[in-house]
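ok so i was messing around last nite and threw this chain in just to see what happens. nothing serious, just curious
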Amino acid sequence: MSETKQDFGKVAVLMGGISGERDVSLNSGKGVLAALRARGVDAHAFDPAAEPLDALKAFDRVFIALHGGYGEDGAIQGALEIMGIPYTGPGVMASAIGMDKFRTKLIWQAVGLPVPAYEMLDETSDFADVEKRLGLPLFVKPAREGSSIGVFMVTETGTLKNAFLAAREHGSLIMAEKGVMGGEYTVAVLDGETLPIVRIEPATAFYDYEAKYLRDDTRYTCPADLPAAKTAEIQAGALKAFQALGGTGWGRVDFLMDDAGRHYFLEVNTAPGMTTHSLVPMSARQAGLSFEALCLKILAGARLG
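result:
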């Protein structure tokens, strides 16, 4: 990596924000900030919830460590485009679509990628019929949230409506998704290439917020214990999934496996976590890239458009 402090100029690390993932974002941002400073970068913390966005005009580029609404949904990306400040990660369109699990699935289906069976829910839905069509277990989730916020697992007949009402507290667009229970995995994408696959084995019923950020008994295997041919197939599919949304720079594509060994793409993260529990740094280490080197490489890819 040849970039130096002079090449990058003054860098803002965006963290915090106003979404439900604020705490996670602060942890990500602090880690990124320390890593960049350790490599001599003139990096500064910037919390959009506490400072006016106009103050970003004093910076030469931005590392986006925001998660969720107004940080990962194209909003901050659009503001940076208007101000002409290069930023990390995908652009406005890919960020906006990637934050919307429903529209992400529509695009993936259109390009022939496998996704779990799902249905959108509202107050008029026949919840009993949805349970029958999708089968149990199934998951209910807000389509525009991340970090498993507002996700509920339905395992008992007749409880889907209650799960819908609970999920609706976290957003207005709610989906029910067939439970695919053969394993949870993720693939990191960095500069047009995929990194080693990570398998996730939570001690909880599924990979919820607690398992992601608060527990130490979630098991991770990297590289995942998949056959070489299957690994190559999934990595190619993940790159296609990322690029189908217009994804550039870096991101993460999550997928599930069923008991028969079939995979289903679940969602994309256009500003993945960078905490001690996060998956992209784990995968990067397996590929020989330290956390500091990873942060520097992501920053080097900051761009407009």
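not much to say yet. The first strand starts at residue 10 and ends at 14.
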